[in-house]
Design brief:
By secondary structure, the protein is mainly alpha-helical. Helices cover 28% and strands 0% of the residues. The protein is built from 1 helix and no strands.
Length: 32
């Protein structure tokens, strides 16, 4: 899924003015 989103943005004319931020949070535990 991340790859398809990246490729869609990368092929867009707005690519030069775009940012893609990917965050990851483990399941469970306390907020850090």
């Amino acid at each position: 899924m991340i790859k398809s989103v990246y490729e869609t943005i990368r092929n867009s004319p707005l690519w030069e003015n775009s940012i893609l931020i990917i965050t990851y949070d483990e399941h469970g535990g306390l907020f850090e």
